[in-house]
Amino acid sequence: MSLDRTKLAKVLALLASDQPGEQAAALHRASKMLAAAGLRWESLAGPGTDQSAELAAMDNAGRQIAAMLREAQGDIRLLKTLLEAANRKTDELRASNRSLGTLNAALKRRADDLQARLDISTRENAAFRRALGPEAAARAVFAKEVCT
User: Fold this and answer.
1) What are the coiled-coil residue ranges (predicted)?
2) How many CB atoms lie within 10 A of CB 11?
3) For residue range 32-72, what is the model confidence (pLDDT) as tens digits?
């Protein structure tokens, strides 16, 4: 079994705890991890096991990941803000659409009313012309055109 160095680093970080119980548990856990990997404490510090470059690379990778995470969190905050703005605009447009629907219905009722009045006037005008006869109707049209 290979040694999970990331996990070992986390366990070893607990050695800095101000709680003696946590320190002892961390030391015990680290010893078990080394034994499971077939290693001893001496092998970590022995010759030919200089891992400072590897640890520095891991530290650098951790810093890069943390920076990417902070950037992603900023992007998420921005996206949430944009989504909230879009939702507010959608609500405004829905309210406006409802208002326009109400106005459209009122205008349609008014147009229907005017059309009905025009139909009545047209029928009354036709009845009036029939009652006057063709000559009187022609004189009325002529007088209207001359007067206006």
Assistant:
1) 69-124
2) 19
3) 998 888 888 877 765 555 566 677 777 788 888 888 999 99
- Extract the tokens encoding 146: 């001359």
Cα dihedral: 107, 109, 111, 115 (round 10): 180
The pTM for the full model equals 0.39
- CA 15 remoteness from chain centre: 44
Q: How many angstroms from the chain centroid is the CA of residue 22?
A: 44
Rounded CA separation 18/25 (Å): 13
Q: Tokens 């063709």, residue?
A: 134
CA angle in degrees (0–180, nearest 5) for 87-88-89: 90
